[in-house]
Amino acid sequence: MSDARSIGSLTGVIFDCPEPAVLAEFYRGVLGGVIEPDGDDWVDLILPGGGLRIGFQLVPGYESPEWPGDAGAQQVHLDIAVPDLAAAEAPLLDLGARLVDSQEGFRVYLDPVGHPFCTVH
Fold first, then answer.
1. Whole-angstrom Cα distance, residue 113 to residue 95?
2. pLDDT of residue 60
3. For 20, 25, 29, 103, which has the most beta carbons within 10 A of its beta carbon?
4. Whole-structure pTM value
5. Main-chain phi, psi angles of 89, to 5 degrees
């Protein structure tokens, strides 16, 4: 294994969205953590452990990504480890996620504004 030096370290992932506080609350329900608003157009979710944050940025005219699809902008998605794929499904749906695909070892959902994410086991 090589001892490569990094240029930096990841502190967060940012999601464009139409309502930052609403989407932050959804992901807090999924991942836990503490919500820290920063005005009307930005909300941070500080994940448990305090090292990583997810930011939610207001984008007027937001359009959700298309999944699956080859057209449009490239996407990033989160893989969220869960102990049991089936047991995680009902709470995610209750929070507002939409199941769009189920495969051996993972399930694909869309968050309330259309960002894809996966539960993995």
1. 12
2. 93
3. 20
4. 0.85
5. -65, -50
Amino acid at 42: W
HEC secondary structure over 11-79? CEEEEEECCHHHHHHHHHHHHCCEEEECCCCEEEEECCCCCCEEEEEECCCCCCCCCCCCCCCCCCCEE
Nearest-angstrom CA–CA distance, 9 and 106: 27
Give the H/E segment covering residue 95.
helix 85-95
Please answer whether residues 65 and 115 qualify as being in contact, where contact means their C-beta atoms are separated by less than 8 angstroms.
Answer: yes
As a whole number of angstroms, the distance between CA 34 and CA 91 comes to 19
Q: What is the CA radius of gyration of the chain?
A: 15
Give CA–CA dist 116/78, Å, rounded. 7
pLDDT per position as a tens digit, 17-68: 999 999 999 999 999 999 999 988 999 999 999 889 999 999 999 988 887 7
49 Cβ contact list (under 8 Å, min separation 6): none
